[in-house]
Amino acid sequence: MARNSISDELIIETSARLSNKVGLDNLSLKMIAEELDIKSPSLYNHISSLDDIKEKLMIYGWKELGEKAIDSAVGVSGYDALRKMCYAFYDYTTNNKGVFQAMLWYNKFKSDEMANATIKIFGILHKILEPLNISSNNVEHIIRTLRSFLEGFSLLVNNNSFGNPISIKESFDLSLDIIINGIKSLEGVK
Amino acid sequence: MARNSISDELIIETSARLSNKVGLDNLSLKMIAEELDIKSPSLYNHISSLDDIKEKLMIYGWKELGEKAIDSAVGVSGYDALRKMCYAFYDYTTNNKGVFQAMLWYNKFKSDEMANATIKIFGILHKILEPLNISSNNVEHIIRTLRSFLEGFSLLVNNNSFGNPISIKESFDLSLDIIINGIKSLEGVK
DNA sequence: TTGACTAAACTAATTAGATTAGTTATAATG
DNA sequence: CATTATAACTAATCTAATTAGTTTAGTCAA
To answer: How far is the CA of A58 from the C1' of C8 (A)?
Structure first.
């Protein structure tokens, strides 16, 4: 070791906080370095590029969200659990805008670590849906439906893209009603 | 006029083509200028910044998609029309990845022109849903549901974020089944 | 306790791209 | 043919990422 030695975790946590404040696009090594009271080239002792930080931010975000999602689904099951998890998702992504941007844009499959980033949260979804009367193939498709909706909705809210004064919470609630009713219709249970 | 004079449209069309090829993040004034056989500072006679181009690309994309969406819904109505429009959406966004990135990220409400970018396509959706037996307030919410799903799904496909070999087309189809059945359940018609 | 080792900081330099300032060429108009 | 305005150009500036090379200070073995 040498000097005060900043940990890799501190860099990511700092980047997370800063990106949530100023937006991922405006996150710079300069800014991170200043916040940590070091010079920007010193960051290269810990990371390999700005893009590297953004990838790590992506993994950090999915991990953190995964943990919150688990907490949210404790003690409930079925559609109640699904609903709680969706709210946890929305809460996290709208309260961590910068990190969520990274979660969206850097979630490509370039490495195992990246590929596994979302395993936790969508694994939970799997466990919630499994006991229902749905074919396992359809469970996979439904996870994609939910994921698309959740990521899309959060993105639109964060970007302030809904050009309409009606309540966002109501939209989210009704959307969940629609999707859940739709899933039930596949169950043949309705 | 002076010299060969490159039109604003040509700049945007060129930018669209290039961004679809290399990704919006990699689009640069240098690249656009080279493609147009001029020097990059010359672009400033037409645009005010790289961000300005990206905003225009956003508007260009929503406009182009709006036109395709109209075409897709000609001669059909109700849920058939809805389904066709969703396919048109998916087709466009996955065949124009760079432009779609701009459509997602630059769709904030900073000006009337920007606010109106999506009016056409979501207006069509409105017309499709209006005749159904749904409260007008719910129609607005449903448009948000659909929009979230469509944008989210396209983004995930374009980013290759679905880490699963099952068919993407089947996922899309089943998702539409789910959402449409869900909407029907709101109609009380089912 | 000390001296070697190494991690992690530092400064200086390089590079690339966006943007600005100031200059020049050419098409259109009278 | 002369004027004018537009849109090109070159030169210069600025900022941020990244690389190269240097220095400092914890750690650990003798």
So the answer is: 25
